Amino acid sequence: MTRSRRHLPPLNALRAFETAGRRLSFRAAAEELGVTQGAVAQQVRGLEDRLGLALFRRLPRGLALTPQGAAYLAEASRAFDTLDEATARLLARPGTVTISTTPTVATRLLIPRLAEFHAALPGVELRTLATEALSDFDRDRVDIAVRQTRPPFAPGLEARLLFRHELIAVASPHLVGEMKLPLEPQALRRMPLLHDAHGHWPAFLRTAEKLPGAVFNQTALALEAALAGQGVALACRAFVAADLAAGRLVQVAAETLAAGPDFYLVRKRSAPGKAAEAAWDWCCRALSG
Fold first, then answer.
1. Which of 109, 170, 208, 268 is most exposed by smallest CB count within 10 Å?
2. What's the CATH architecture for 96-163+261-286?
3. What is the tens place of the pLDDT at every residue in 199-210?
4. Has domain 166-258 been given CATH number 3.40.190.10?
């Protein structure tokens, strides 16, 4: 006789419990699930009532699992992982690889090399997710990520250093004109400075003063302004290497700044598909500085 599954608790209650159990916080669980903290607490309370036992101890700051809750969480997490893997297999497109990068990595390093990528891996469709937010490998279906980070890494992640975050000051040769390079710091301060959201100019020039100049929310935009002759931008050397080699930009100061953290290629340690493995190998070769 087939056993009915109708006695199972509601899926939303199980999701609320599993998320709260992982995060040990109703607030953090609510942020992950995109609902209110009260909704998570109500779902968990309803689940406890249905089961007739306490799954959490409510503490002044956060939660603690009861022994029964810890045992139930292990099984619930395993069940959700199984569902997630089954869904991923169902939706998987064998030749598609998703890479998550910052917008600047995408515009300065990845997009200029797309023709090279497709020539090397003609059977692989590359999907680029350009965002400043950290992507979740499972939730966002990400195979590979390029991120600023530093060791140590989580046991479930593999990371490969691509290049150091070494900042240099660059400008269009049309802006520099006949100036003698490299510029001294005081001469550099008199130039129109282009700022991005990271705000590294004070550290680069070793000053606590507020420095004037146009402000952009992304480094890629500040670099576009520098290429247009609008001022001097700070950029990771890897992002402007091609422009320096082509003469579109010049390094205007001898000083550099190790801004950190550095840029790493990251993926889950679970066995990747053939397309993802090939894309990983290509990124290691093509994007390394």
1. 208
2. 3-Layer(aba) Sandwich (3.40)
3. 999 999 999 999
4. yes
* DSSP line for 112-181: GGHHHHHHH-TT-EEEEEE-SSPPPTTTTT-SEEEEEE-S---TTEEEEEEE--EEEEEE-HHHHTT--S
CATH architecture of 11-88: Orthogonal Bundle (1.10)
Which pTM value belongs to this model?
0.68
d(CA 214, CA 221): 11
What is the residue extent of each domain of the chain? 11-88, 96-163+261-286, 166-258
Residues 6+ positions from 287 with CB-CB distance below 8 Å: 105, 109, 110, 113, 146, 162, 163, 265
Q: How many CB atoms lie within 10 A of CB 282?
A: 19
125-141 residue pLDDT tens: 999 999 887 778 887 88
Query: Token digits for 205?
Result: 């020039």
- pLDDT band at 167, cuts 50/70/90? very high
